[in-house]
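Q: What would this complex look like in 3D?
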Amino acid sequence: MQSPQIFSFHGGIHPEENKAQSLQLPLGRPSLPSELVLPLGQHIGQASRPLVNVGDRVLKGQIIATNNGFLSSYLHAPTSGTIAGIEERAIAHPSGLSDLCMVLWPDGKEEWTELNPLDNWQAQDATHVLAHLAQMGIVGMGGAGFPTQVKLQGASKSPLTHFIINAAECEPYITADDMLIREKTAELIEGIEILQHLVKADNVVIGIEDNKPTAIAALNALLSERGSEIQVAVVPTKYPSGGEKQLIQLLTGKEVPSGQYPADIGVLCQNVGTCVAVHDAILAGKPLISRFTTLTGDALQAPQNVEVLLGTPITHLLDYADSDETKLHRLVMGGPMMGYTLDSAAVPIVKTSNCILAATKKELPTPNPEQACIRCGMCEQACPASLLPQQLLWFSKSQEHEKAEHYNLFDCIECGACSYVCPSSIPLVQYYRHTKSSIREAREANVKSDLAKQRFEARKARQDAEAAEKEAKRIARQQATAAKASTKATPAEQAEPAKAPAAAAPVSDEAKKLKIDIAIGKTKLKKRQKELLAAQEAEHLEEIQALQLQVTEQETQLAALEARLSKISATPVVPSSAPDASREKAPVNDELKKAKVDVALLGVKIKKLNKQLADTPDDQETKDKIAGFEKDLATVQAIVKKLGTATAPATKAAPENSTAKAPINGDLKKAKVDVALLGVKIKKLNKQLADTPDDQETKDKIAVFEADLATAKATVEKLSVAPAESSTAPSEKTSSNKATTASAPPIADDLKKLKIDTAIAKAAVKKVEKALKKAEEIQAPEADAIRQQLVEAQQRASDLDKALADAVNGTKTTDSTATEAKAEASVPESSAAEAKPSTPAAPANADAAKKRKIDLAIAKAGIKKAEKNIALLKEQGKDEAEITASEWPAKLLEAQTKLAELEAATDAQSQENN
Amino acid sequence: MFTVLLAIGVLLLLALIFGGILGYANVRFHVEGDPIVEQIDALLPQTQCGQCGHPGCRPYAEAIANGEAINHCPPGGQATIQALADLLDVEAVPLDGDHGAESAAKVAVIREDECIGCTKCIQACPVDAILGAAKQMHTVIADECTGCDLCVEPCPVDCIDMVEIGVTAQTWSWEKPQGIAASAINIIATDRQTEVTH
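A: Here is my prediction, written as structure tokens for the whole assembly.
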């Protein structure tokens, strides 16, 4: 077998190897530690998601955390035992921070879960094999921990020229891969064959440094024995030939372009550890639960390689290798070049931990203080990525991120060769790392701010769209009403052509105009009423008559206007009589205005003169002037008073429709507010009750409020129907008519109607009472007539009330038919009231049954609740006396009796029905 | 005389030709909008918090373009001021304390069992990062939250906390090395303890 051609890469260094120490002893297998700590983020990408709970017993190899997205991995229990916690623990990280870990307490039984090897992997579909690898938790074991299935997927997209197995292990001290090759040669080769089956590369090359002769010999022997096509490429020892890009360059002569991946040039690189893990996963069905790790450093008395379970705390390994605490100066995870110092030895071994270096002070001395760069250029000579470390240092120091990026900072593999050769002891790599993370942070912030901007703009667009839609709807509504109004306007035009000249005008304008007209009309009406009152006071008989006429006229106009407005919110026609009325009204109005202006003017003049007087206190002329003005003022004020005083007590002509409507509306509002308030109070008390369930006082309060609420609600109902009826003037008549006629068919509504009628009647009584009061005040002759009306109205109200009460009680005279009810409707109201309940009787039965059922359900629920509470009390270990002392037994009894009653009633009812 | 006239004529001709080209280019490659506002807006942190006194980052960007001070953005902090100063070629000034102090990145967290589902915070959130419906519990989508604080005030039950985003192993970044000035050791005799100025 011919050995493949070896190329070279730029730079590189030759630090002291220090590999012999850890190869003195054979592979060690430390005992089970007392606890295993398994970080959920042992790989690049999303941390795994726990699948087991604290306290669960897990078996060796059982999945304890699943992958959490595409770039993620599974995690398995390294041994059987109990999950003691899922908590924050210190992890092996340069920051020394802690992260979420699963803590497993081994039970020492090493009980395996069921293993599912993929024996027929040759016949399996590649995606199936990859899925199996993913489920076995295989990640790149060279250092980065990149999920292997993702890497293989990426590589299988394009044909590969080279599949390289990285066995170079260039970093000083580390011999884990060397030992792995020696110990598991066959497994390694089989693992490579499986991977080759998946990626089907033209050449399969194992790249290994020439400082591992034993491993090379073992490989060669086995490969020639199997007649394998896998080649072994022995490369000269040079740091960092084990870097992925450097090894690719060594074996293929091709450089991975900046910002690209090896797969882009048709190369796949896998670590030997990964290949062995793949073998275990496919052929033995064993997940990745252990790895080879080098324990080395002068502070250890027995440096060696160990096969260690993941999650084993480093303290346990240090004990195993006989560490000398006094000699230990720095504990490093990884090698001396690319590793990082650990703050604590309590951190666990993870999938990527290839070496624990317990160094003495002599081995890894504190670095010399940083000196100024002397521009010697040695770093440039050493850089394996052909960068300009010096330039990058300047840009990093001055935070010129753009320039640093332009000089390909992100191609730096952080191998530390530049820092190693620097005569000024500048920690170059640290600068690069800092700059890299700053740039990454800035990028992330940029992405986030872009996202925020996007969302902000999307929200704004949405809000604008909503506003536009609302506006469009509003316009559409307007147009709809305009169309309706115009169709209505046509007959109106025909009826009174003189009064409706401009029917086609936009409706909104019409409605507005109409509203304005109504407002004006109302003001005028009020003024007229005032004037009328004044006239009555002055006993000017002619004036009274004229004014009364005007008031009635004004009222009818107003009523007409309001009717129009309420019809379809607008009629395009404004009655021409309205302006007429305003013209009639004008002189009085103007007079008042003029008088008021005079008052104001005189006031100002007097003020001015007073000021003048203050300056020249003896000026007789000014004084005289003031006196004159004051006199004038008095007269004008008198005029104003005359014109503007007095309230408008409506005479018999004062209509109920406009005046009565307002108070009822006010009452309605008030009642609604009361309902809302009571609701809130009850809610509050209920809350309070929840806190202190035994507080009898609160309960009482709630009951009271609930009663109040019921009454308030009834009032609202009453009032809300009242205004509708009150606008039609002689309310008694209409309501009585309604009361009588309403007994016809729609039976379900009858009760409601009756209620409404009662409400209307009551409102009418109130109204008449008010009118009477006013009439009495002005000693109008109609007072007696009004009194008569009042008595009538009261009679009606009481009748209706009675009828309502009867109807509610469900008095039944089922045989009386609708026609009879109608016939009776024409006779006096009292008989109508009697006739009414006859029809609702049938549905009342149904309602009553329903109500009974509901009551039954409530009673049952009450029993259940009481029983539950008693059970709870018993559970709490309270004795009999305490339980009896509590309210629940009483409640239970109460509910039970109620239930019995209700059931008896239901039985009786059903029998009756039968 | 002829040569002089010829020279003038040729120059005139050239001037006209180039003038024509430039005029055409001006029309053909005309840039719409105000690119400086875009550039400023790109530097602002887009928290949309309104601490600068403008309803969002873009209005502030427009205000800066019209001459407002560049130090009114606490979420952006000194870094943003520096970037704006570089862009606009003005002097970087310290953050104006009247608009708030620079603080660590925060994220809103709703104490969910206390939430009454009033949707007030949803309406206040400038980036739609709060999820919920009327009478349903609300929650903050942490990844979308800019930490602008605007949801805290409208909450009637005060169940929103602004929680600092701590450093985790994933978000941790390497510290900058101490540098030369940090070492107080005289390596050679001629080392003097003078301030290092670059």
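A: To summarize the key features: The interface with chain B takes residues 41, 91, 93-95, 97-99, 369-372, 397, 427, 430-431, 433-434, 436-438, 440-441, 445, 448-453, 455-456, 458-459 of chain A (CB under 8 Å). Residues 367-491 of chain A form a domain with the Fumarate Reductase Iron-sulfur Protein; Chain B, domain 2 fold (CATH 1.10.1060).
Q: Very helpful, thank you.
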